[in-house]
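User: Hi! I'm a student and our assignment asks us to look at how structure tokens line up with a sequence. Could you show me two examples?

Assistant: Happy to help. In each example below, the sequence comes first and the structure tokens follow. Example one:
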Amino acid sequence: MDILRRVNRRKRRPRRVQLLVPLLLLLWIGMGVFEASRPMPEGLAVSQPWRPATEVQLLLDQTWQNPSGERISDQQIFDQALTMIAEARELIVLDMFLFNDFAGQDSFRPLSSELTQALITARQRRAPPEVVLITDPFNTLYGGVPNTQLERLRQAGVKVVMTPVHELPASNPLWSALWSLCCRFIGNDMAGGWLPNPVGDGKVTLRSYLHLANFRANHRKTLITDAGDHWTALVTSANPHDASSRHANQALRFSGPAALDLLQTEQAVGRLGRIDTRHWPQPPTAAPVDSDAELRVLTEGAIRDALLELVNSAAEGDRLDMEVFYLSHRPLIDALIAARERGVVIRALLDPNRDAFGREKNGIPNRQAGWDLYRAGIPVRWCNTHGEQCHRKWIRLDRSDGRSELISGSANFTRRNLDNLNLETDVQLVAAQDHPALQQARTAFDRLWGNAEGVEYSLPYSAFADHNVARYGLYRLMEATGLSTF
């Protein structure tokens, strides 16, 4: 009898193991569906009302190499940001994705320390303004490394808000499901670990790597300040990140009710970070715009909707120019190809996805997306980078009726940036084609496309063409599943 019992127990154990495997698999799938289907928190993914385009200014950063090989950087964006901070009286709100000096040994400019000092100086005034910095937990590698700039700001009385990105939908649900089941509640340690730091010297913990693989991010890049009697805002593609200081970037600065619309979108992120924003001013009630130039603030999925509406509305005789760091979003690529078939003249200037802070990348996704455009007859050129990145994210449509539209901001043209996963902010400007900001945008693009003044700003499609079918398949898989950094 004892022998029979032991035999029966041995038979039951394999059955339990066999049942455990599908149960864990079912739990993994269920958690993945849950993480991917999280709704965006309240106040995100919004399209603010159209407002008069007040004091709109286009700011550009550009690095190039002259014929003698000298690298030259012309920068406007953070110079303007520092001026805005110096003029603020009551409130300064920044939302910046990267705010650190990681991998910045060979930087052109110490942007993070410059911005830190400007904010500390503002806090040291006799009547200091309230200063709020909203940023992403990547700036401490998710609690794995110290960030000197953020600590200095806290000590000066700046409210530093680490965005709780775990409350956002999962952009990499296959991993985020496992993360939520096994690792999310394990603490991290800034004292160091045993793995190489991916962004600098020293060692980091395994948990920093595991957290990084979720690829959730607050990718916004905004600044709102008052100057006593009016509000001014900046929406940009640029980060106060030392190693990014040579990147090509763009920004729109504007004032008036739209600046308060932008502040309202940041209140939603502030609430996520558990700070009290109820005393911040609210935008005025929307009214019909009596102006030849108007703009609106867009966040998250509203950016995607505006992009698709812009491209899908383009007609024969219209001209569309785009310059973007990452292009991979399939509905947008399909819309561009369809617009080309309708007779829209399109030019695409793309980063070759070669350089990443001293490391060489494999060209995914831009070389594969560029192949799609090239096969459809859309002219493609590559930014001629030399270690820096062509980090702009903007598109401009010049209509045959004399009007133009520009969408510009933080959002790359990817699934992660456009489909309600990352936090993003863009601005849409609509005006006559001779509006100064639109004229400047057109001139800047033409200069790069045509290699003006004998400078090789851009290269022909053949310079980085990649028609490898396996890499193309890998790009499509990475875009669809979120198993990617773009």
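Example two works the same way, sequence first and then tokens:
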Amino acid sequence: MRIASRALAALLLAGTAYLPAQAQPAAEPTAADLVAKNLAARGGSAALAALKSVSLDGKLVFPGGFELTYNEVRSGGAVRVDAALQGLALVQAYDGKGGGWRINPFEGRKDAEPMSDDEARSFADAAPIAGVLLSASSDGSSISYLGREDFDGTNCYKLKVAQKDGDEFVYLIDPDSMLEVKITETRKLRGAVQVSESELGDYEAVGGVMFPMSIESGPQGSSQRQRVIIAKASANVAAPVSLFAQPGK
């Protein structure tokens, strides 16, 4: 009986060698992993380094279908946006050196006026060609992985960028394309915390770097959204320093 028991035990042990190994759950990526994959999806570091300026032309559509022509130029950490209707052009710009300014003829103002420091900081975040996420590692911001979140039926990766000034950006990254599909910004403007959301889509390559051709944005929780639709994008356009400098200053 003892011999039979030993033989049975030996057979059971031998049999386990032929059992299929159970699949182990895939390890969750780190923030660094996701940033590296996003960089590759955007076009890679060489393409970003070669893209010195970019111009985006299209239209800005407000709730109710009110439309303005739209032009955005970014270069060397500076950005300028012109939105025009019937000869009137709203201009908003950041000069890349800490100064933001605007011209708003729709409010009866024809001369350039400086932005507040908070507003200038907001435009400064929009200036880098690489964007806030890919610039975070070089400007002292921290990046953390927050797990997954559903967006329109897709289980997206979630990353948070916390800047040194306290502003935060939460990105949802599509797991297939590894491109940003939603950004939630939390920042302080004029002493009050404001949260806005942007949904990004229709990516196209500009000088080898992927940019969204459709951006819908507005305050968090609001159904009132504005949409930028880009019809033409150009790489390495002429972008002199004077384009971003405040007139008359």
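Here is something you could point out in your write-up. Residues 1-20 have pLDDT under 50 and may be disordered.
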